[in-house]
Amino acid sequence: MKSHLHxxxxxxxxFPRLVLFAVLAFSIRLxxxxxxxxxxxxxxxxxxxxxxxSQIQKNPNDAQAYNQLARVYFQLxxxxxxxxxxxxSVALSxxxxxxxxxxxxxxxxxxxxxxxxxxxxxxxxxxKVKAEFEKAVALDEAGKNLSARADLAxxxxxxxxxxxxxxxxxxxxxxxxxxxxxxxxxxxxxxxLEKQNAKDKAEQEYKTAIQSSxxxxxxxxxxxxxxxxxxxxxxxEAAINNSLTARREEGISLFDGxxxxxxxxxxxxxxxxxxxxxxxxxxxxxxxxxxxAHYVLGVLLxxxxxxxxxxxxxxxxxxxxxxxxxxxxxxxRIAH
Length: 336
Known about the structure:
Elements lengths: L1 H33 L1 H7 L2 H14 L4 H14 L2 H14 L4 H18 L4 H21 L6 H13 L8 H12 L3 H14 L3 H14 L4 H13 L3 H13 L6 H13 L3 H13 L9 H14 L3 H14 L4 H10 L2
Helix pairs in contact: 2-3, 3-4, 4-5, 4-6, 5-6, 6-7, 7-8, 8-9, 8-10, 9-10, 10-11, 11-12, 12-13, 12-14, 13-14, 14-15, 15-16, 16-17, 17-18
C-alpha cells in the first residue's frame, strides 16, 4: 500500500502545479483581453472602444487612453472621431511626439476624404498635417521616433511646394533615418526618387532596403507596391512571391501583400491564402487589424464568386468592429 501511494505521489505533487499554470494562463489571457494596447493591436475594435471609454470615464485626463482611442477610430476609418480623440490627447500631453504624429495622420486622412469636394477645407487640413508632423519630429530630441520622420518625409515628398512640400527636406530626413535604420532610410530614398520620376534609381533604393533589412518580407512588399504603381505586374507578383519565403518578423507583409494583389487585380487565390495565414497568427499588428483582414478576405472571395464564404468573412469583421462601414455596406449589398 505504501509503495502504491508512493507511485502516485509524483502525479499528486504535479497536480497543484498544473492548476497554478492554468490559473496563470487564464489570468494572462484575461489581462490581455482588458489591455487597450493589446486590443488595438489585435483589431478588436468594439472591445477596445468599451475598455477605453470606461477608462476615460474614470480618468478624463488620461492622454494615453485618448491616443489609443484615436488609433481605434483610425482603424475604423472614422476620421472625425479620430481627430477629436487625437486633439484631446495632444491637449492633455502636448509634449509627446507620438501624439502629434497621430494627430497629423488623422488630419491627413480627413484631407484625403474631403479634398475632391471641399478643396479649401483640404488645404487647411494639409497645413495642419505639416504642423503636427513637424512638431512630432521637433519633440523627438532623442531621435527614436523614426516613423514620425518617415511620415514627415512622405509629406515633404508628396505635397506641392505651395502647400509645404520640400524634397530637399525630405532628403535630409531620409539621411537622418538611414544612419539609424538603413532599410527604412533606403525605402524613404526610393519613395523620394519615385516622386521625382527617377524610377530606375528608386527601384535600386527599394532593393537596397531589402538587402539592408537582411531580406525582411516587409521590404519585398514595398518593392512589389512600387512595381504595381509602375505597371510592372509580373515583377510585382515575383516580389510578392519572394516576400513569402523571406524573413518575417511579423505578419504585416501577408496583410499588405494581399492588398497589393487585390489592388492590382492579380492572383486572388494567393491573396486569399495570405490573408488566411495572417488571420491564423496569434499576434496580428495594429497596421493590419484583424477585422480589416476579414473584410479584405471577403472582398477577394466575393470576386472569386464564393458569396457564402464572403458573407461569413464580412460578418467576422463586424463581430470585431460592428461599426466598420465597408463591411456593413458589403454585407448589405450581398447578404440575403
